[in-house]
Amino acid sequence: MAKLERELTGDFDVLLKRLQAGILEGSISATLEDVSDFSCGESRCSVRVFERYSHAGGNRVSMNLTLFQGADGVIHLSAITSGGSQALFFKINTWGEEAFLETLADIL
Questions:
Q1: pLDDT tens profile 8-58
Q2: pLDDT-above-70 percentage for the chain
């Protein structure tokens, strides 16, 4: 598992579209598996779940991307990858997870 967290400013919708497009364009095998969007008052939250094939691990890895914006306007980003390990009881070979997360880091 790999994780990236940031605080950002700007237009929430523009940022979400840019990140989603960049992740999907960053890998030929990347897919958008599901989405969830909700708001409460001035707060907004968007969740995106992506998958892609990891050639290094020979399996698929997922990335959960969450954007949250509160009344203060700051956008909180949290991205967590998972699924690239090949071991039964402990994690080895997490290169695919780290590489998928790097796709997002490059967009930022």
A1: 999 999 999 999 999 999 989 999 999 999 999 999 999 999 999 877 667
A2: 87
Paired tokens of 67: 């954007």
Structure tokens at 41: 């008052």
Where helices occur in 1-94 by DSSP H, the ranges are 12-25
* Rounded Cα distance, 20 and 97, in Å: 17
Burial of residue 62 (CB within 10 Å: 0-12, 13-18, 19+) is: middle
| pTM (2 d.p.) | 0.87
Give pairs for 44-49: CB < 8 Å, separation 24+.
44/12, 44/68, 44/69, 45/69, 46/12, 46/16, 48/16, 48/19, 48/20, 48/23
Residue with tokens 């523009």: 14
Give the CA distances from residue 31 to residues 9, 45, 55, 92, 105, in Å, rounded to whole numbers and listed in that order: 26, 21, 15, 24, 18
User: CATH topology for 2-107?
Assistant: Protein Transport Mog1p; Chain A (3.40.1000)
Query: How long a stretch of residues is the chain?
Result: 108
